[in-house]
Amino acid sequence: MFANYRLHHVGIVMPSLEDAERHMKTFSIVEDYRGYVDQWHCWCIFTKTESDTTLELVVADKGPLLKFNKGVGGVHHFAYSVDDFEQATQWCEQHDLRLLEPEPIKGAGNFLCNFIHPVSTRGIQIELVQELS
User: Are 78 and 5 contacting, i.e. CB atoms less than 8 angstroms apart?
Assistant: First the structure.
């Protein structure tokens, strides 16, 4: 399943939209698009880069992400692309990896997503992402 995985993005929690804007300006990062994910109460700002690595700056307005890393933010997750969520779910079950949500949810972009529970990955947050056509 993940023998030829592709990193979709790296998610970084930011304390505020102002902090996200300042981070992008400081490091000359250009916003590609943003969207709001109701289920997780956060803005997700996806960036354009010269390389294949995309950053997602995550800014919560309520919920547990507000307290991530004692409220100062930081690296939150690594997201991997999957071709088919049904296959990915079966693979996770075969490897005793529990998913956070019973079904994938609509992400901030044109994709479905779900997280592998960090208890299953020794605390590393892994998101699975399936692009929609």
Answer: no
List, in order, residues 6 or more apart from 34 with CB less than 8 Å away. Answer: 43, 44, 45, 46, 108
User: Hey, is 96 helix, strand or coil?
Assistant: coil
How far is the C-alpha of 68 from the C-alpha of 9, rounded, in Å?
19
Q: How far apart are CA 67 and CA 86, in angstroms?
A: 32
Residue 54 token pair: 């995309």
| Cα–Cα distance, 57 to 85 (Å, whole number) | 24
- For the whole model, what pTM was predicted? 0.91
The tens digit of pLDDT for each residue in 15-67 reads 999 999 999 999 999 999 999 999 999 999 999 877 778 999 999 999 999 99
Q: How many angstroms separate the CA atoms of 20 and 22, rounded?
A: 5
